[in-house]
Amino acid sequence: VEPQSDLLFSSRHMNLDSTRVSPVFWTVSDVVSYITAVGFPEQAAAFRTQEIDGKALLLMQRNDVLTGLSIKLGPALKIYERHIKVLQKTHFEDDFC
Amino acid sequence: VEPQSDLLFSSRHMNLDSTRVSPVFWTVSDVVSYITAVGFPEQAAAFRTQEIDGKALLLMQRNDVLTGLSIKLGPALKIYERHIKVLQKTHFEDDFC
Amino acid sequence: VEPQSDLLFSSRHMNLDSTRVSPVFWTVSDVVSYITAVGFPEQAAAFRTQEIDGKALLLMQRNDVLTGLSIKLGPALKIYERHIKVLQKTHFEDDFC
Amino acid sequence: VEPQSDLLFSSRHMNLDSTRVSPVFWTVSDVVSYITAVGFPEQAAAFRTQEIDGKALLLMQRNDVLTGLSIKLGPALKIYERHIKVLQKTHFEDDFC
Amino acid sequence: VEPQSDLLFSSRHMNLDSTRVSPVFWTVSDVVSYITAVGFPEQAAAFRTQEIDGKALLLMQRNDVLTGLSIKLGPALKIYERHIKVLQKTHFEDDFC
């Protein structure tokens, strides 16, 4: 997955307007839509239960995703490595550009 | 959130007199008022349950907030990153000035 | 255990065709067969429960295996040290050759 | 709290004779008396339940006190930072003098 | 405890022949006998429950002993620091001599 395209893909599928492409502005529902859109509909509900909005998503570390959401380990590993980590990398790189 | 203003904001809303602005002197009730004042009324009670006064608040690390209070992960991440960490930074900087 | 022979052994016993020798292409069932083939039939089911496919297997760290699968500590230590770690080492070395 | 006085205070209140001032020689009951004497009577029982004598006390790390005793987080943070850590520092400094 | 004598003591009390003095060759029952022989009969059963043989014992880290065996914290701290750590140190030193 190429970071930028992951964001474009999700923004298109989540009907986000351009001002809300940045995860900083995502509501809890946007996070749930994003996790669903990238292929983990069964795990998405846990993000609502734990009240993870975009700002919280950007603060999550590996262990928070693996043990703090009560989701299965296999999907948790992929959600963190392929999506959350990439989203954070893209976000914090943008900050420094 | 600008550190100093967070403290001023909380001291004004908590009716703290000037000698108690420093978290070192906060009682458990002051901590509960502070967590409520900065936007987390639902999570504030957990600080009373775990008997966190100002001195204990200054000793908390990220993982203590995320796993030791039995509060939701999203709010826990923000309480730590935006408030407790900032409070500690301000407090320990004051010490060295 | 010599890394390469562990992979050859497992591919032979799992009826994997050559294009699927790399753990990247293993399904959850391939992972379960692999854990069974290397001597841990009782622990193999936990990999299915947690939906660990080959890609997730390559992302697992020591603590994930020891605490995230609810398997006994003795077998967990050996599965990680002798097999998962070796598989990852072989896989990521191949990447850089 | 000044380390040496903490030890003197506790030895006086625990009726320890001089040969038992060093935590190395404390029994589980001495540890319970010490935790009570320094202000945590409600948490002291947990040290008996977990069979912590002086030698074990000197081996405890921050996380062991916070998560291994099933005591409230606020008192746990203070017991570790103000007492156990100080006791260990004093003890291991004595070793090297 | 002097490492070498701990091993000699245990080998004598466990009726191990010389070829099995190295923990690498210990069965789960040998580990249980060893933990009993060094003074922790109540904790020894947990090593059987978790299927810890000599090879697994050599792979255990501090946190595995403290949280993975469901034994009391005081004895766990001593078992790790005085025995398992010493056994590992002796074993891996032998490897490099």
Structure description:
Five copies of one chain form a homopentamer. Chain A is mostly helical and 97 residues long. Helices cover 67% and strands 0% of the residues of chain A. Chain A has a single domain (4-95), classed as Transcription Factor, Ets-1 (DNA polymerase, domain 1, Orthogonal Bundle), CATH 1.10.150.50. In chain A, helix 2 (28-37) packs antiparallel against helix 3 (41-49). Chain A is globular. The two termini of chain A are 22 Å apart. The mean pLDDT of chain A is 86. Chains in contact: A-B, A-C, B-D, C-E, D-E. Chain D binds chain E through residues 28, 49-53, 55-56, 59-60, 64, 68-69, and chain E through 66-67, 72-75, 77-78, 81. Chains A, B, C, D, E: It comes from Cyprinodon variegatus. Chains A, B, C, D, E: One of its GO terms (molecular function) is histone binding. Chains A, B, C, D, E: InterPro entries: PcG_chromatin_remod_factors (IPR050548), SAM (IPR001660), SAM/pointed_sf (IPR013761).
Task: Offer a quick outline of the entry.
Chain A is mostly helical. Chain A is 67% helix and 0% strand. Chain A has one domain: Transcription Factor, Ets-1 (DNA polymerase, domain 1, Orthogonal Bundle).
Identify the notable features of this structure and list them briefly.
97 residues, mainly alpha, DNA polymerase, domain 1, homopentamer, 67% helix, globular
Sequence-ordered SSE layout with sheet pairings:
The structure is a homopentamer of 97-residue chains.
Chain A: H1 3-13, H2 28-37, H3 41-49, H4 54-59, H5 62-67, H6 73-95
Strand percentage of chain A lies at: under 5%
**Oligomer status:** homopentamer
| Main sheet properties of chain A | none
Span between N and C termini of chain A?
22 Å
The helix/strand order of chain A is HHHHHH
User: Over all CA atoms, what is the radius of gyration of chain A?
Assistant: 12 Å
Percent of residues in helices of chain A comes to 55-70%
Instruction: Give unreliable regions of chain A as ranges.
Output: none
For the secondary structure, the number of strands of chain A is 0
Principal-axis shape of chain A equals globular
Task: Could you tell me the CATH topology label of chain A.
Answer: DNA polymerase, domain 1
Domain SAM (chains A, B, C, D, E): 26-74
Pfam family, one (chains A, B, C, D, E): SAM_1
GO molecular function, one term (chains A, B, C, D, E): histone binding
Protein name (chains A, B, C, D, E): SAM domain-containing protein
